[in-house]
Amino acid sequence: MKKKLVALCALTFVGIGSYVGYSTLTKDNDKQLDIHMTQSNVSPNKEWVINFDHGINEKIVNEKSIYVQDEEGNRVPVSLKISDPQTLIVKSPNGGYQKGKTYDLYINRDLDLEHVGNEKLPKQYHIQFSTM
């Protein structure tokens, strides 16, 4: 049940049609629009499981295309794992995220093979989450 919930959350922000009712458009530092979502009471050991219907653009899977920042804007040392051609896992840092803190997960649009270079879509997806 937990895996289905995580997969559903991931599909919600990756799927174009599914984010319309749940997201708002905001401006990032580069003045590009992004898709913003918020989650609270996230486990300090949260592993984000992101499913891409049409596959992952493995050429750009790195710390520049998907990353986590803390409240001060510092990068958090998460690890990335491709578990299959359509699933990317963002593992929490060693020791987990700090309890009671807020973090930001950024995912480049071009990681999704379906949306590579689609300038009509926002450049990135943004999930702000706070730990319990």
**Biggest β-sheet description:** 6 strands, mixed
Give the CATH class: Mainly Beta
The residue fraction in helices comes out at under 10%
What is the correct CATH architecture? Sandwich
- Enumerate the spans where pLDDT stays under 50 for 5 or more consecutive residues: 4-31
The tally of structural domains comes to 1
Portion of residues in beta strands equals 35-45%
Radius of gyration: 14 Å
Q: What is the CA–CA distance across the termini? A: 20 Å
Number of helices: 1
Broad shape: globular
Can you tell me the CATH topology? Immunoglobulin-like
**Helix-strand topology string:** HEEEEEEEEE
Number of beta-strand segments: 9
Mean pLDDT: 83
Side-by-side strand order of the widest sheet: 1-2-9-8-4-5
Structural class: mainly beta
Pfam family, one: Big_5
Organism: Aneurinibacillus aneurinilyticus ATCC 12856
InterPro entries: SbsA_Ig
Keywords: Signal
